Amino acid sequence: MLHRRKFLKSAGYTTLSALLTMGVLKQKQSHNNNVAMASYPSTNVSSPLRQLAAAKGKLYGAAIDSVYLQKDAGYAALLARECGIATPNGELKWNATEPSPGVFNFKSADVIADFCQKYNIKLHGHTLLWNQALPSWVSFPPTMQQLQKHVTGVMGHYKNSPVLKSWDIANEIIAANPNETNDTTYGLLLGLTPQYILELFKFAASVDSTKLFYLNETSVEGASWRSDRWLALIEYLKNNGAKIDGAGLQSHLWFSTAYPFDAKGFSSVLKRLNDLEVKPIITELDIIIDLPLPNNIQDLDRMVADSYKRYLDLCFAADVDTVITWGITDRYSWIRDLNYMPAKFKADRSRQQYLRPLPYDRNLQPKLARNAIAQAFQQAT
Ligand code: G3I
């Protein structure tokens, strides 16, 4: 297996992506012609994902919601068993932690921090700067004074935390496309400048340089206008002395038999981050199968499982060591929340049963996806 990885590295992953492209084609064929499919034996269900990950020096975890954590014992037990790292779903965002100027509230975040301490789970802080989940008294971008006070209060509260080991210093700051920015080089959202982001990273380091600092972004899991500018910003921050330890690829992935996955582009993003010595981190992984939907739930779950396995194989071939799914059970997936559900699924209730993006189903039972994730960790070299 080591030979395979060295061979693939020397080939710059093109060989792997070619194999995967074939795999994608195979998936289409297998989906359509019932060719022998990859199997994900449930024998490994007895081994928690956190244990399978740790055996390879890696971390598996999930986003946690404090409200459900307190009222759903089955959910809490599942998280305790499976997770070696956790991200608060919303509890460390600005609207939760500083609802009024200078008034900090960590009650819901500390419910999660205490849970993590009890079960020896690392806590990932998400996020100090985002243009969403802002309290009404903050406009975007916040003034540097507002931002520095916020960072001081929030990072200060967790400076001596035994569990919080990393922060998303900023989240989703690259525009979705050139029409949403005036910044041709880095594609930053209107109002942001690279100097502002650099100052944020440097100020955060002055408050607490003991944590790992990440820049978290969505829709950068392939070669695109957005990922190019995100990588350029990371290089700028690195070259100008920012403490940036990792780059978070959210990985809210859409797959379909109607379009292939940009395996080659994704591998090139991972390679460029490794070349910049900024670790790629998978921070919000979940998998939505797009139209045309398969004929039944069994086929759907198979497609989700195959997609997890192929994606994680690529990640681990590039030495990714941290994988966080955005939730652990379909029972509480954000994508099933009517406030966030994609319009094409909201428009047709019969499609909503196909929103099954996570390792466990709504009855907290392991799905094929869970076995596929387990197998990916087991096969990681
Ligand atoms: O916790 C309160 C609860 O006490 C209250 O009764 C309820 C009333 O609506 O609100 C609850 O807060 C909700 C919070 O999730 C729970 O963590 C907020 O209303 C709701 O807006 C918030 O939505 C979250 C959203 O980020 C905005 O913060 C989603 O669940 C969460 O999945 C989503 O996650 C984002 C990542 O942070 C960044 N990447 C994209 C991802 C998906 O949008």
From TrEMBL:
Any Pfam family from its record, for instance, is Glyco_hydro_10
- Under Enzyme Commission nomenclature, its number is 3.2.1.8
Q: Which GO terms describe its molecular function?
A: endo-1,4-beta-xylanase activity
Keywords (A to Z) from UniProt: Carbohydrate metabolism, Glycosidase, Hydrolase, Polysaccharide degradation, Signal, Xylan degradation
InterPro entries associated with the record: GH, GH10, GH10_dom
Q: Where is the GH10 domain?
A: 46-376
Alphabetized PROSITE patterns for the sequence: GH10_2
Q: Which reactions does this protein catalyse?
A: Endohydrolysis of (1->4)-beta-D-xylosidic linkages in xylans
GO annotation, biological process? xylan catabolic process
PANTHER family cross-referenced by the UniProt entry: BETA-XYLANASE, GLYCOSYL HYDROLASE
Q: Which family does it belong to?
A: Belongs to the glycosyl hydrolase 10 (cellulase F) family.
- Name of the protein: Beta-xylanase
Q: What is the lineage of its organism?
A: Bacteria, Bacillati, Cyanobacteriota, Cyanophyceae, Nostocales
